[in-house]
Amino acid sequence: NGSWSQQDLLGSDTPAPGDQFGSAIALAGDTLVVGAIGEDITASADGAAYLFTRDGLGAWNRIARLGAS
User: Fold this and answer.
1) Whole-angstrom Cα distance, residue 63 to residue 17?
2) CA torsion through residues 67, 21, 34, 63, sign
3) Tens of pLDDT along 6-65?
């Protein structure tokens, strides 16, 4: 019917106010990449990208965190 509804809530393991999780997103089919440009696991705000896939029931599962070394 063209209406939108929330299906899941995505996030990082260690959310913090300046992480900016969701500052960039890319969606291709059942694969989603979410950027967190201010994430600072090492206190240097290098940023990170999170990779999610959607299963057959519509739930999103995080499969990777890509961050600076």
Assistant:
1) 23
2) positive
3) 888 898 877 788 888 999 999 999 999 999 988 876 667 788 999 999 999 888 999 999
**DSSP character string of 1-69:** ------------SS--TTS-EEEEEEEETTEEEEEETT--TTSS---EEEEEEE-TTS-EEEEEEEE--
Tokens of 21: 């999780």
* Threshold 0.85, pTM exceeds: no
Contacts of residue 66, defined as CB under 8 A and 6 or more positions apart, other chains included, come to 48, 49, 50, 51
